[in-house]
Design a protein that fits this description.
The chain is an alpha/beta fold and 482 residues long. The protein has helices at residues 42-59, 64-80, 82-93, 97-124, 159-171, 184-195, 211-220, 233-244, 268-280, 300-313, 332-347, 381-384, 400-408, 423-432, 465-470; strands at 6-8, 10-12, 15-17, 21-26, 33-39, 126-129, 136-144, 147-151, 174-178, 204-207, 226-230, 249-253, 259-262, 292-296, 351-354, 371-374, 391-397, 412-413, 415-419, 437-440, 455-456, 459-460, 473-481. It has an eight-stranded mixed beta sheet with strand order 3-2-10-9-8-11-12-22, with helices on both faces. A seven-stranded mixed beta sheet has the order 15-16-17-14-13-19-20, sandwiched between helices. Helix 2 (64-80) runs antiparallel to helix 5. It is globular.
Length: 482
């Protein structure tokens, strides 16, 4: 696949153009320049918001059926462009092609799901409200909140965009999207598909650029009614501070330091596969990574032996290698960040079971072996902080109550996993875990119908499901005398 030397990084008011900020897009496998995207700055944000505000009046008055039809066309366009989008994901992000396929299929499913919810709005936009007095009647009305700013990360290009964009459009909002400057290529291709699906000019706008140049002014602008951000906690705090200046709505999907609990009666073969999937999928670059593995003392030795063998057998390779199981980290900065965490973990006294280095057969690219630690101090960054790389920390527990306490002892609370043959007991453990989503004997499957988000410092609000749509709606009650 050949790419142009330079790409337009602005889609505003139905027109493509180039900004003045060159963004070098690097292939994480070869470390070579893929292309340069010319993104925008505060003036581009201003232009995009003006376009979105101008389009909102008419777009907000469209029917849910009209909006749903456009969302279905977007889903169909993504399905048609599936191979191209997969290729761009793998080249720009470094993830294996089979992982990119999962991402593209998730985008299709998300747009189709919110198309259905949009179509259902026509019958349920207004509903009656029971009052204690016959002298009055009331109705509840759900309306689009206005112009929204969407800021998405690099680890799941297009997926996090779809999770925000589909419900925003379904609700009747106009959008300014800021993709990650690290992985803009899949988002630009998705935007090209959206541009052909019949949206009026100004309803959907995209501005590539850095967080400082684009994200900060987008979060602070008073024309933005709602800002939805996915990324690190540190940047999420800055987004919230900017948004507070104009008291706008905020949704945040931030970090995680999630646990996988292997109960004594667990199927160990399944537990090993779930631990590797939860820790090494997307090279561990997931907010939902179950990077803390808690295993019952009775089975810990056997589990760790099996886990080490499985991790060492994972084929780390070019994303297009037919036998690849794990690809590259996204860029040099992330690669060095993860290596730094590994070095500090060793200095803190943790025991390296396997990995921790570049695979010998890959002399270039941002590749790292699947890495496992034991004896990790509970107060170390390796145990407490989000690493965002293929690093698992394994700790033994003596009873389930101790495992639950260890799992909940975190400032995060995004997801968790439980492995046990006793499904009823596993359900009780799931109820005790402080997490927004718990899997029992299951990989990290995510459905558009189920909520995404967590407790504590992992999230503010929820995405997906009807909650994702409600995040872009305002509630209005109308009360009148009988």
């Amino acid at each position: 696949m050949s790419l142009p030397i330079a790409l337009d990084g602005l889609y505003i008011n139905g027109q493509w153009s180039s900004g003045g900020d060159p963004l070098r897009v690097i292939n994480p496998v070869t470390e070579a320049l893929l292309t340069t995207v010319y993104g925008g700055d505060e003036s581009a944000v201003d232009h995009a918001l003006s376009a979105a505000k101008g389009a909102f009046g008419q777009w907000s008055k469209t029917t849910g059926a009209e909006r749903g039809a456009i969302l279905r066309r977007i889903a169909a366009g993504v399905r048609t462009g599936r191979e191209q989008l997969m290729q761009l994901q793998s080249r720009n992000n470094g993830k294996p092609l089979f992982e990119a396929a999962i991402d593209v299929d998730d985008v299709v499913a998300t747009f189709e799901y919110y198309a259905g919810l949009a179509e259902g709005l026509d019958a349920g936009q207004d509903s009656s409200v029971a009052l204690p007095s016959d002298d009055f009647s009331a109705r509840l009305r759900r309306e689009p909140c206005g112009v929204v700013g969407l800021i998405v990360p690099w680890n799941f290009p297009m997926v996090t965009t779809a999770w925000k964009l589909a419900p925003a459009l379904a609700a009747g909002c106009c959008v300014v999207l800021k993709p990650s400057e690290v992985t803009p290529l899949p988002e630009l291709e998705l935007a090209s598909i959206i541009a052909e699906c019949g949206l009026p000019a100004g309803v959907f706008n995209l501005v590539c650029g850095t967080g400082l140049a684009v994200g900060a002014p987008l979060a602070a602008d008073p024309r933005v009614a709602k800002i939805s951000f996915t990324g690190s906690n540190a940047v999420g705090v800055q987004v919230m501070q900017r948004a507070a200046e104009t008291v706008k709505g905020v949704s945040l999907e931030l970090g995680g330091k999630s646990s996988l609990l292997v109960i004594a009666d667990a199927d160990l073969a399944l537990a090993v596969e779930l631990a590797c999937g939860g820790g090494f999928f997307n090279a561990g670059q997931m907010c939902s990574a179950t990077s803390r593995v808690l295993v019952a003392e009775e089975v810990a030795d056997e589990f760790l032996q099996r886990l080490k063998a499985r991790a060492e057998a994972i084929h780390v390779a070019d994303p297009f290698d037919p036998d690849v199981e794990m690809g590259a980290l996204v860029n040099q900065a992330q690669y060095q960040r993860v290596l730094g965490h590994i070095d500090r973990g060793l200095s803190a006294g943790a025991t390296l079971v396997c990995g921790g280095q570049r695979p010998a057969h890959l002399p270039r690219g941002f590749f790292l072996q699947p890495t496992i630690f034991t004896d990790v101090p509970l107060d170390s960054a390796l145990w407490c902080e989000e690493i965002f790389g293929p690093v698992l920390c394994v700790r033994r527990f003596s009873d389930v109550e101790q495992a639950i306490a260890l799992a909940n002892d975190s400032r995060f609370g995004l997801v968790a996993s439980v492995v046990s043959r006793n499904v009823e007991a596993a359900g009780q453990v799931a109820n005790a875990l402080q997490a927004g989503l718990v899997w029992i004997n299951a990989p990290q499957v995510i459905f558009p119908q189920a909520a995404w988000g967590g407790y504590k410092q992992s999230s503010l609000g929820r995405e997906l499901g009807p909650w994702g749509l409600a995040a872009f709606q305002e509630i209005k009650h109308v009360i009148r005398a009988a």
